[in-house]
Structure formats: C-alpha cells, structure tokens
Amino acid sequence: MTKILRMLAAIWLVAAAAATHAEVPAVSSAIQGFHTAYELRYAGLRADATIDLKPTETPGEYLYSVTTKTRGLARLIRPGTATEVAKFIYDHNGFRPLSYHLDDGVPKEENDSDVQFDWAKGTAVCRHESQTVELQIQVGMLDRLTSDIVAIQSLRDGRPLGEFDVVDRNEIQRYEFTPQGEETIKVPAGTFKTIKYLRGKPGSSRATMIWFAPDAAYLPVKLAQLKRGKSTVEMYATVLEPAAAPAPR
Predict the structure, then answer these.
(1) In this structure, which long-range contacts are made by residues 200-203, counting pairs with CB atoms below 8 Å and at least 24 apart in sequence?
(2) What whole-number distance in Å separates Cα of residue 97 and Cα of residue 115?
(3) Whole domain around residue 78: which residue ranges?
(4) Distance between the two ends of the chain, CA-based, in angstroms?
(5) How many CA atoms lie within 13 A of 152 on its CB side?
(6) What does the alpha-carbon distance between residue 7 and residue 29 come to, in Å, rounded to a whole number?
(7) Three-class secondary structure of residue 200 per DSSP
(8) What span, in angstroms and rounded, lies between the C-alpha atoms of 142 and 101?
(9) Residue pLDDT, tens place only, 41-53
(10) How many domains does the chain have?
(11) Residue 79: its pLDDT value, please?
C-alpha cells in the first residue's frame, strides 16, 4: 500500500507555473469541484483510488483528498486505507497551499508526512520519518497535492507545463514536464483524445507519463510510472464526475 500510495501522489505532481517555478499562476477560470476514481495495477495487485476536490466554508479555500484501498489478495498484505489531504487557497494572488498530510494506512508512522505552510513567515514546517524541519519557502512553491490542481488549471488556460518546486519529505524537490504529443486512449471511464506529458526529476531514472484529456476538463485519464523507460505501475480512470464540456483551448 505504501509504495502504491507514494506512486499515486507522485504521478499527480504537476507544474506550478507557465514560465518558471517562482511565478504565481495567474487567476483566470474558476475552480470546479470534482470526484474521480482510478484503478491501480501493480505487479499483479489491484487497488482503487478516489480523488475529490471540494470547497470549504471559507471563501477561496479548498480541500483536496486522495483515498486508496487495496482489493483482492492485496488486502491480505495491506488491509488499511491510505489517505492524503491538502488544503489550499485560490484567490487573486493565485494558489497558496496551507497544509498537507499523508497517512499510509499502517500503524507505523515512518512513511507518514505532514506540512504546515506559514506564508506570513515564509516557512513550511515539515514532519517525515519522525523528523521535523523548517524550510524557507517562496511564492509559487506547492505541496504534492495542490500541484495537481495547478496543472489542470494551467492546461485549461492554455499554458504549457514546465518546471516547478514542491515541498515533499522534508525537502524541496524540483520536477520537470516534457510534452510527449497526443494520443487517443480507451480506459474504463471512456475513450479520450489526450495530450501526454512526461514528469521527472533531473537525472532520475524514474519518471511518470500522464495522459490529460481536454474533453474531460483536462483531468488525467491514465498515468504510468516508469523506471528506466519501463512501466511499473499503471492507473486508469474509472469515474470522472461531473462530466465536463470540452475545455477552451
């Protein structure tokens, strides 16, 4: 479960700005809440993930959550439910993450993570593997989950994905996105024309291919984690709600 959940979060990491990682994405179209579900396939094991974006009672504030459950024989190995939750603000200043929490669903806490952002102080207090550190942050930096929504909004607004910085595992990590063309694919949720991006860290042997569907409001409909160019984990959309009209280009 831990490896599957870390993969799930990693493949959802996406670009924070259209030009450079230090810029604030411009506010344009409004954010719409959604509910999606995916089937994960890993070494013969299966898991289901649900992803939800909902506004809170505070204007401009949103809650973004990912829940992952194994099924079949995999439940004998990892019976728990893993969760990730992020809270962020989206207003005239763009995106600002407020908090992030990962619970991998097992009693031991070594894989759990927590981040609390303090933009007034310009710091993020992070806890991972029983260690707590305070990092200096800059405008445009994101957590693992808030970056999902930034990417979707960027694509909806016609901005390409580039490089960005994400606060993760007690450090700041940089990721790059490289366009890989277009492809029509069939998944349980339907058949979609997609645009593909390869996400990876400079010099790493691991990367993730993501298929974004313009006709599904640029939600990812397929994701694949790659190691030395070979697929190790794949993720297919089974539910996309609400059904969205084609997004403007």
Answers:
(1) 200/175, 200/176, 201/173, 201/174, 201/175, 201/176, 202/174, 202/176
(2) 10
(3) 2-177
(4) 37
(5) 22
(6) 29
(7) strand
(8) 13
(9) 887 788 899 999 9
(10) 1
(11) 57
pLDDT per residue as tens digits for the range 137-188: 999 999 988 888 888 888 988 988 888 789 988 999 888 888 999 999 999 9
Provide the 3-class DSSP secondary structure of residue 11. helix
pTM of the model: 0.81
Cα 168 from Cα 188, distance rounded (Å):
31
What pLDDT was estimated at residue 109? 62
| CA pair distance 8, 156, nearest whole angstrom | 22
Which residues, in sequence order, are bridge partners of residue 162?
Answer: none
The string of pLDDT tens digits covering residues 92-117 is 888 999 999 998 877 666 678 999 99
Amino acid symbol at 206: R
In a domain, residue 201? The reply is no
What tokens does 231 get? Answer: 């697929």
Tokens 């599904």 sit at which residue? 216
Asked if residue 215 belongs to a domain, the reply is no
Residue 20 lies in a domain: yes
